[in-house]
Write a structure and sequence with these properties.
heterodimer; A: Cytochrome Bc1 Complex, Chain C; globular; B: 349 residues; mainly alpha; 3 strands; 54% helix
Chain lengths: 226, 349
Amino acid sequence: MSSVSRKSWTARARERAVGALPPEKLLPDSQPSYMSSWIYVFGVLTLTSLIVIIASGSILALKGPGWWHLTGIGHFFNSIHMWAVELFFFFMVIHLWGKYWMAAWRGGRARVWITGAVTFLVAVPCALSGYVSQQNFDSQWISTQAKDAMNAAGIGAFWNLMNFGQMYSYHVFLLPLAVVALVIAHVLLVRRHGIVPPFQLSGAGAGAKPTSAARRAPDSGSEGTS
Amino acid sequence: MSHEPDDSRAADSSEAVGRAGRRRERRRADEAAREWKGAYRPYDILREATIALGVVLGLALVLTILFSSPDLKPSTVQTWSRSDPVDFVTTATTELDDSSITGSYGPPYNHASDGQNIWFIHLAKWFGVSHPINTAQDFVLAPLRSITGQPALQTAVSTYEAAPANTQTTWTSAYEKALGNASAKPGGSVSVKPGNYGPLPTMMGSLLTFAQSGGLDGALLTSKQFYQTDYTKPLMFMSDGGVLVNRAMQQHLLGTQWGMMNETGSYPGQVWLWLYTFWYQIKPFSTSTNADILVLAVMGVLSLAFVLIPFIPGVRDVPRRIPVYKLIWRDHYRSAPPAGTSAGHTEEA
C-alpha cells in the first residue's frame, strides 16, 4: 500500500517528533537521583511567573490600555502584572546563575543554554515596551531617556519608544510571542536532553551508585523542568 | 649551534601534548555528561508546576496588596505651560531658532548633526531621518497658524516668516536673553523688558495662551489621519524644557541617579538593566558625547558572550574550577562517594 511505502509529511513529522520526545520523556514521572537541590525550583518558578504575567496581561489587554488608570480592579491587575514581571526576572537570573555554576551546557546541551540566555535578552525589550506603554509619567520619562540609545544604534528609525501604538503592539503580541516561543523551545530541549548530570569526581563512574531508595527509570525518561 | 631551539621545540611539543590531553579530557567529561546512567527517583512534575504556580501567584498577590504599583499622572503641555510659563516660552523660543535639544539632535529627527558614532560606524546617520521634526514649524509656527480669529497674531507670524534668517536669530537671541530675567504674572502670562524682539512677544503670548487652554497638546498630535498614537512630537517638545526633568529629579530618575532603570516612588523598576545603566556612571562613558552607542556596543559584546558561554574557553571552565557545584549537588556526592576517597572529593576533569 502506498501509505506504507511512501509516508506522508504528516506521518514523518509525527514519527520524528515522537522519536525525539516520546511521552515518557515529555512528561516523566521520575528524575535522576541527583536532582535534589533548591536551585532546581527556579526554572519552574520562572515558567510559572511567565504564566501569571500572560494571564494578568491578557486581562489588561481585554479591557484596553486606559482601563487600569481609571478603576481599582484595573490597578489591581496592573500591580499583579508588574510584580509578576519582577518575580520573573528575579527567578530567571537565579536560574541562569545556577545553570552557569552547573555548567549546564555540558553533554550536548549548548542549545539549552543558548535558548535560555536569548530568552533573557528578548524579555528585556519586552519589559521595556511595557514600561513605555503605561501611559503615565514613567512612560514619558523612560521613553524619552531610552530613545537616545535606540537612536544612536539606528534602532530608533524603526522602533520608536515614543510611539504608543507601536510599543503597545510589541508589548502585547510580538515580543511575548517571541518569549513564549523561546521558552517552549527551551523546555522541549531540556526534556529531550535531560538535566545535566553532576561533574564526575575522582574514581566515580558516569552514573553514581544507586541508593537503596532509588530505582531505575523506565526507558530513558531523565529530565527535569529546570 | 645552540640547543635553545631544540629545548623550545621540546617545550612546545610538551605543551601541545598537554593541550591535546586537556581537550581529550574535556571531550570525555562532556561525553560522560550526555546521558545519566545512574539512579532515578519518583517525581511528579505537574504537581511541582502547580505548587510553583500557587507560590508565584501568592507572592504576586502579597506584593500587590502591600505595595500596589506606581501610576503618576503624565505631564501635559497644558500643565507645563500653567505651572512654569517662563520655561515654556523659553523652550518654545529655542524651538524657533533650532537651538533646542531636538533642533540640534540629528537623525532620526533632522539633519542638524550626524548623530552618535563608534569609529567609522555611523548607524544613526545611515538609518537616516525617519521621524522628521522641524521644531520651528511643528512646535510653534504651524500651531499658531491653526489659531483663527486673531488677525494680529497671523500678521506677526507672517512678519516672522518673511524676515531674513539673521533678523530672526537677532529677535530670538534677544528674547531668550530677556526671558532669563522674566517672571510669570499671577494670570499665567509672561512679560519681559522692552527690547528688539520683533513679533515674538505677540507670537509667544498667543502660543502660551493656546498651550494653557490645552489646544497645543492636540495640535502637536495632529497628523494626516484622524486616529493617532504617536506621541513623539509632544514628548520631544516637553523634553526640551524642564517639565519632565524636574519631575524626574524629584523621583530620582536622572541619568546620574541610575536613570531609566528606576521607577517613580520606591519601586524596583527595571533592575535587570543595572549593568547597562552602570556604564553610564563611569568614564569614559559618563563624559563621552557618544556614550549611548559606546554603552550599547559594550552591552552587545557582553550579551553575545553571555549567549555563547558554552564555547568560550576560560569562561566555560570557571564552574569546573570553582566548585560551587559541590554545594549544589552535595546530597548526590554525599550519597555516592567516589571509590578510594573519603569525604573530600577531588575534581577529576
